[in-house]
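User: Show me a protein chain along with its predicted structure.
Assistant: Here is one chain, sequence first, then structure tokens.
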Amino acid sequence: MSILSRFLSLFNGGMRAYKIQDSQRLRRIGVTAKNLKELLAKGCEKLQINESEVTVVIEDDGTVVDDDKFFRKLPAQTVFVFLKKGENWRGAGALIHDALSKLYCASRKNEIANQIRDLLTDEDAPEKIHIISQYLEMLETNVDSEERAKHEDWFEGLNKKYKTKSEVMRHSAQTRVRSYFITAKEQIEKESDSDHKNSLISVMDDINNLLKKNDFNAFFFDRTSRGMMCDKKGWFTCEGPFDSKNCDKFHTINPYASRGYRQLFGLWNLDHIIEKSREVIPCLIEASKNLPKGKELNTDLLYKLLFTTDNLKLVQIGCHKKAARPSGNITWKDFCV
């Protein structure tokens, strides 16, 4: 939310404006709400849907919204789809039709529509439609522009020091990496004993210097850098849950396209496959206690596990599993070299 929006919210009771629609896209209505409960009540009244059997999803990617904390993180003007019991969100039908109207002559429209209908009748249809929807929506955005002067709306609410989109995205990556460093160091300071704390803090100082040298991995989200996690246009693809090789929901996003997509990208996570707080740091602390003579703590391994894509996956929030994971992926001995 922009600074102006936050300021105004002080005078309107925290209300923000959203858009709602039913699964048929027959009506799109603007509503204001300060929490999910209020959005649900107003939406059901406007759309004449029974509140007890409705599911609310984000139009963009079909993510179910059933938690008020998550709802409050979504930007104003987010479009929500209210689904009745038994309905699924397939979306993009109107967008596909509009695109066909623009791109093809009337004589071929029915033929092409039939081909698309055949393509989208299998079990993966919702995901395929979602992908088509996103790409069609991008036709009306300003994906390629980098400079602030050419896409002012994208920068709304951001510090004037940022002149390009890539600068903003670099800062976003740095912020996440810094937060991992801070929480790791805090856990070490809290859980390590006094006899070994100094050696562990020294290791973290070395890690901090390495992060500074690498600009806190700002390149992760910078589409103009080598080693970025997106393609040259800025498209990011969800890598799926920690226990999967890929995302079977085909989640994709391009935060360079619009301010809304930039804000939604904040809900994507860099997820540690081998958990930072439950496995990596505890093993490091144990290694400091049992470090054999002539050995030292493995700084390179710690950096690799905490701050590189060897152990980090970019995941859409729907693929971010927070349950405890199987342990034993590493042992304290791995940190002794």
